[in-house]
Amino acid sequence: MGMLARFSQTRNAWGWLFASGLALQLAALFFQYVMKLDPCVMCIYVRVAVLGLMLAGLVGMLAPKLWLVRFVGMIGWAVSAVWGFKLAYELNEMQINPSPFSTCSFFPDFPDFMPLDKWLPAVFEPTGMCSDTPWTFLSISMTQYMMIAFAVYILVWLVMLLPTLKPIRSR
Q1: What pLDDT does 170 receive?
Q2: The whole model's pTM is what?
């Protein structure tokens, strides 16, 4: 537990969180622009959840030895991972059980103070349909892979939670 506690107080630990989120964002852009797979509004919301993970990683990297900074980073990490899993689960339900009564919007519903689709349309503007499943690998859809990814983020968060909240005692 002591080794894990020390690791949670390093910039490397938080850098891995940021880097993994960045890798997911780059993969999403690869699928969109190279493979020509249009993201739906729920996909865009999943990107925002991944962006939240990246921001949590940046917060943790600011001062990982300070308990309050780690706590804020951990809260951002948890909220983003749980919200991302929830979004991916809802999108998966729309894809495996398509219904004309259960559809998603064509337009994102970002707050007025943060219209990401207007600020950065190349990344946050939806152009696809939620009920489409345009890509699978080993019979698993992209949405299901995102559910797995967010479940891993939640699991790692749980593993890091206890030692992160406890300050290291000097010996």
Answers
A1: 47
A2: 0.83
Active site residue 6: no
Q: Is residue 11 among the annotated active site residues?
A: no
Kindly tell me if the per-residue pLDDT of 1 is higher than 60.
no
* Active-site option among 6, 11, 70, 104: 104
Let me know if 171 is a catalytic residue: no
The pLDDT tens digits for 123-165 are 888 787 767 777 677 887 888 899 999 999 999 888 888 765 5
DSSP string, the chain: -HHHHHHHTSHHHHHHHHHHHHHHHHHHHHHHHTS-PPP-HHHHHHHHHHHHHHHHHHHHHH-TTSHHHHHHHHHHHHHHHHHHHHHHHHHHHHHHS-BTTB---SS----TT--HHHH-HHHH---S-TT----EETTEEHHHHHHHHHHHHHHHHHHHHHHHHSPPPP-
Set 6, 11, 70, 130: catalytic member: 130
